[in-house]
Amino acid sequence: MKRARTLVTDSPPRAHAGEPSWRDSAGQAWRAYASDRLAVAGLVIAVLVGLIAIFAPWISPYSPTAGVGADRLLPPLVDGHILGTDGQGRDILTRLMWGARMSLLIGIVPTVLAFFISVPLGVIAGYHLGWVGEGIMRLLDVFLAFPMVLLGLAIVSVLGDGMINVMLAIVIIELPFMARLVYTETSLMRQKPFVTAARVSGSTTLQIMAREVLPNVLGSLVVYSTTIVGAMIVIGAGFSFLGIGIQPPTADWGIMTADGAPVLDSLPHISLLPGVAIIIVALAFAWIGDGLRLVVDPRKRVV
Amino acid sequence: MVRFLAKRTVLALFTLWGVTVLIFILFQALPGDAAISLLGSQAGNPEAVARMRSYLGLDRPAYIQYFVWLGDLLQGDLGQSARFDQPVSKLILDKALNSIILLVGSAVVMFSVGIPLGIVAALRERSLFDRIGMGVIIVLGMVPVFWFGLLLIYLFALVLDVLPASRMYSFHDSNRTLSILVHLVLPAITTAAISITILARVTRASLLETLEAPFMQALIARGIPVRRRIWRHAMRNILPIMVNVSGLQIGWLFSGAIFTEVIFSWPGIGRLIYDAVSARDVPVALGGILVVGALFVLANLAADVATASLDPRRREAM
After folding, report:
1. Residue A249's domain spans which residues?
2. Cβ A230 vs Cβ A281: under 8 Å
3. Which of A139, A231, A257 sits opposite B150 (nearest CB)?
4. Which of A200, A282, B36, B140 is least enclosed, having the fewest CB within 10 Å?
């Protein structure tokens, strides 16, 4: 990540005065994003994995759940199984492809949900304060005071296993972090001159929240949400690994890691490859987050 | 300082209370009837179920159950495990020492790797060491704990065959302490991995920031030798943040230990919780999660108090 050290303090001069066109701002945003090579790499990886996940039913060579008893534990490159088969005779490449679906769903869907819940919670707590805001933040502090995995463990063990419940647990895990971010940003915005100006000019609280505060807060939240997707994929896979998340025979990277553990000695790739996939996807989202930060916060841009 | 201490303690107590409420609500929501699952073959007998329910206090309103439970809790009574026919507190205490051994081992690994790595990377910013070290740290930060544990088992226990892959000691070893230490290596590294990455990154970033501060320039101007500048002045300045991060990370080690204890068959509290969750042994799972949650809150409290005692600005920030 080598970057020259001049900071851009002003937007570059435009050929003609007036409002910047959509095309101009999009181009500027993309240039900021693309100035981080890892962010571009992350985007490419995420798109590729996304395509694999979407088209898994058509491009995967075998069934992800039904194995062939006679083909158990084949080493890679035997009988048309590029990565070999697992202990139940299922093609590992196929299961890796289908596993991408689970991981992306587990990472993205709860984060989108938590995004939309955390915005009103955080903005109300940060702008309105009062006992409602205070109450919200204290409640979230209780959740934050809990180790994430333990909280998830408690929730999943109560709700039972299965994908919906894991997603719900992940929403509850990430919500306090996201709402706290919105809260902090909002309370900072509250003191900004443009908010005071809006109030003086007669805007109602609701208008100020929607027009002045929200657009400034959302940028940071988008960046944070992207970054956290990777961490949630790791946690979701952890639940599957422990056997309290998504249940077999579903193809999931956490389940695959656990399935391969008994044959770690002879066929380590069965257990270790899914983990590599998790790391790559998690890194991709972290890098995308870094790139988005450059788009959202022009002060961090370096040309 | 007294004011800070009082405020922070009240906050921690409030959080602890919240934790008890949260856990109680969660386990109230548990599907299935504990009385029925305990009775097993007798579950079809309504009279037996009713008697068991009243014995367990399940026929009383939820809020009364909570206060009874909380009252017992404050006296150190976490209930009874039907599965083991033993008090939960005894089950947890029996495993506590094993967990503490793992925790101390992980903390030692975390400090002895994370801090030096961060310091050297900062002092040699942009060097090859810095780039490779920080690259590894970023990847390691995304590694699932359970996967990392299996990788270590594969490399060091199966391929190289130099370290044991599971359990806390071997009956074949004559020296029990040495045996535990050898068995501790891989679990401790596994548990500490994520925390190492955070500690190293924070150390590096805060040291870099401090090295560029005006007072460091002033020290150069006064002709203070470089070693003294770094060890006496820069390090003293980043001490509060390091203490804070370390405290928080020790809290996180508790939760990472759950995976480690499962993978390495380490007989600690994490494994106890995991087994209890799998077997739907509610009182044990409840008690275990509560104890670890409380320790986490206390670790955070300790971290904040220690930081405040080192950095006066922190006291006023409250």
Report:
1. 32-58+77-300
2. yes
3. A257
4. A200
